[in-house]
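Morning F.,

Quick status update on the modeling queue. The single chain you submitted on Monday has been processed. Sequence for confirmation:
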Amino acid sequence: MAITAQERTNVLNGNLEAFWRSRLSKKDPVARIGYALWVTDTTKLKHVIQSGDTHFWNNKGFAYWEFMARSTVVNLATGLERGGFRGTFSQMRAKIKDVGIEVANQHISFVTHDYDNGNIGEIKGLLSLKQMADYHHIAFKLFNIPNHFYGGTWLNNVPDEAEFTLYGELYCHDCDSAVGYKGANQ
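C-alpha cells below.
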C-alpha cells in the first residue's frame, strides 16, 4: 500500500487518472471513486470493474461507481460555489481538478504516515473512513468548501462516526479500522 515515486510524479504532473489507476491496482479502497472520477474514458472504468474482483467493487457494477463519481463532481462544484468560487464552466472544471490534486496530495501524505507508523489500524497504508474524511476536510478547507460537501460526512449535524456506521459501506466496505488513529494532527 506504500506510495511509489511514480505515483508522486503522476500527481505532480496532474495525471490523476494514472495516480488513481495505480492505487486501484493495489486495491486501495478510495481509488474506486478516485479512478471513476478522473478516468478519461468511461469504457476504461467499465473494463476495470468488469474484469476485476467483484468483492473489491462491493458487488456493485459500472453504473453504481459512475454515479458515485458524477455525484462527487456535483458536490465539488456546489461546495466550491458555497465557498465563494465564481467562474465559467471551464474555470469550474479547472478548479475541481485543483481540488482533486490537493485531495491526491493529502491521500499521499496520510497513506505515507499510516505506512510509516504501523500502529494505525490493521494494514499498513490502508486508511480508515476517519482518515479519509480528515484528509478530504483538510483539502476542502484550502478551497473554502464546507466539510459536509465531502460525501462521507455530508450530514452536517450528525457526528462523523455515526455517518460512517450508517453508510460507510456504500463507498468503503473494506477500509481499515481507525484503531490507533489520533486525528489529522498526530
